[in-house]
Design a protein that fits this description.
homodimer; 30% helix
């Protein structure tokens, strides 16, 4: 009987460990196909904020888009602890068209179809400052932006970012965290 | 040996079931204190969409607010399967002030401090059509809106909602689901 119990307990322990592992949070870090970023399933990721018609120009857009920013949950939880983005952070900006005056809406604008998706990834394997930009607007994976296509992005993010190379100044909940942790500049 | 194996398998099965239950998603449905709704910790809930300056009036707001809408993950996953909101759905609208022309932003608007939080809950225990409105803008719980304070909300939601009593027409990803499932009107 003792033997049976020991054997049962051993199998129970293995089963428990397998079950816990199976239920652990999925790895939400970046996945690549060669140098391309595989488009993440981000619909349940953490929403950081949205803008409407945000541009670097002083001329307002006549057809403004919303820019919804999401981050992978593991990076978000790490940021809450440290005020910094950890390795394997994936920030996504989802660009959506806007509309007005439909249904009960008489003024103001709401979101409609998605028109672009861009990724900003922190991963030591990317070289340089560890951050890479990816264009995910087409298909199930997106190429890394290189050369002249990204030089302006890198320059502006490096000079103007509130935290690391990211525009946390526009994401109110994490901006509060960064100010509390003293990591915002 | 056969007996040992059977006993081991039985204990394994119990262990597995307990472990899976222990790791199941936390209950993200509505919690009450009396008739008040306890303010949920919704920062990691599913983002459905945002509007800027949305009003029922034709006069545009001079100081428009963003309205971010979130739903509890269990209700979201159920909606993906059925195109309808299940019992224990909690929809929240987070109202945030907007700003412009700070840092690199030259035009358009981005989100700043939270100015209000409202809840729309489906729960058979609420009576009537099963939906209740709650004002969560103050403190850790919010009263249910009743009488004249809510009559206009109920009337407008009942008449104009795309699904059940909710304005799914302004939440592009779930609106697509509702149209596919034939539940949008």
């Amino acid at each position: 009987m003792k033997k049976i119990l020991l054997a049962a307990l051993a199998v129970y322990a293995v089963g428990l460990s397998l079950a816990v592992r199976a239920q652990a949070p999925a790895d939400d870090g970046p996945r690549y196909n060669g140098t391309a970023l595989v488009r993440p399933d981000y619909r349940e990721w953490v929403f950081l904020g949205s803008g409407l018609g945000m541009t670097y120009q002083t001329t307002p857009s006549q057809n403004p888009s919303f820019t919804n920013v999401f981050v992978n949950p593991s990076a978000y939880r790490s940021f809450l602890q440290t005020g910094r983005w950890p390795d394997k952070t994936v920030l996504l900006v989802e660009v959506r068209a806007s509309a007005s005056e439909r249904s009960i809406n008489q003024s103001g604008r709401y979101q409609t179809n998605q028109v672009a998706l861009e990724g900003h990834v922190k991963d030591g394997r990317l070289g340089g400052d560890g951050w890479g930009f990816f264009n995910l607007s087409q298909g199930s994976e997106g190429p890394r932006l290189t050369g002249n296509a990204v030089a302006g992005c890198v320059d502006c993010h490096t000079k103007n970012a509130a935290v690391d190379t990211t525009f946390v100044q526009f994401y109110p909940t994490v901006f509060d965290v960064a100010r509390q942790k003293g990591t915002a500049r």
